[in-house]
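Repro:
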Amino acid sequence: SQVYGTQSLDTLGPLVAAWKGGAAAPAASGGPAGSPTGVTYTVSSNLRLRSAPSTSADVITSVAAGTTVDVVGRTENSGWVQVNYGDQSGWMSTGYGSIAGDLNSAPVSG
């Protein structure tokens, strides 16, 4: 475990161990993908949270109208945002809600 300031970086342990041992990195756990960027997205109608930035991607769950989620990434054209919703992470189209904050400050992750 490495300590940076007051945060422990135990989450990197399995990745470092896999890298040192030459094994494949562990699969993603399905938890949140990244840290909030200060940008939020409020959906204006019920919206599907998808596994990738595409209408053909698997649906993870549905998010109720009026819900605000933290943006952790975006597509290059900002047509989709990667968000943390509860303990899940996924993608939402930006055409069905409103962005608060500078979306261009979110990293391109899809």
